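Supplementary Note 3. Input sequence used for the single-chain structure prediction.
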Amino acid sequence: MRTLTSRDNSDFRFWLRLAQARVGRTGVDRVLLEGRHLCEAWCDHNGLPLVLIVGESMQPQPWVQELWQACEETRRIVLQDSLARLLSQVEHGPAVFCVVAPPRPALPDRVTQGCLWLDRVQDPGNLGTLLRTAAAAGLSQAMLSSGCAQAWSPKVLRSGQGAHFALQIHERVDLGALADRLDVPLAVTTLEQARSLYDVDLRRPCAWLFGNEGQGVAPDLLARATRRIHIPQEPAVESLNVAAAAAICLFEQRRQQWVHGASPVAG
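The predicted structure, written as discrete structure tokens, is reproduced below.
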């Protein structure tokens, strides 16, 4: 166990960079999880963290002690409360952090299940909400193109609210190449040559493709879609936010599957 009291400590400076999402694109594959929910979820799904960091005033908490005792002594850090406040990205945070190496699953040889495909979704809040919605709708995989926000960044993690632990998340995916591996339909929302969402049979799984907040789905990917769908709405209103549109589509599919007793994932 170590106790850190200086903001000039090299480890603390590194963790601060992780917390502020300034490391992700430098080749350092580490993530800082903050708070009870994310830390416990990580341990439940992936095992112990590389480092457990606890603010000094949080040590007596029973749930913190449980994590503390589970970790090897060399992985435990006590952080002065003033430093813990600097590290926290939320107001009045619980001052418990885990440093982890995020999962990097291999792409499947064939895409045989219902899944989420995202093309250059740049807003972290949107990305986290999309992951959370996909997990809630029963999907188990998410394919993210280059140009998407970093899936394991602090803002996406907070917005996802644990969805990262219910999904296999693949980042920097060449979606065009992956389309050659599809054994399920590729569904996309568009206004061009599209059918109403409520007229489409969605009982069987598909890959749902949603695009960039401003530009939508790239034309080459749109051309690969086998289901072109639009969401009927009042014409005087601008198109829906990508996360809202995805929620409507995924849960309309979920509704149809529930009614007919079909699986949301497998065909």
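Residues 38 and 162 are 6 Å apart (CA to CA). The domain at 115-260 is CATH 3.40.1280.10 (Alpha/beta knot).
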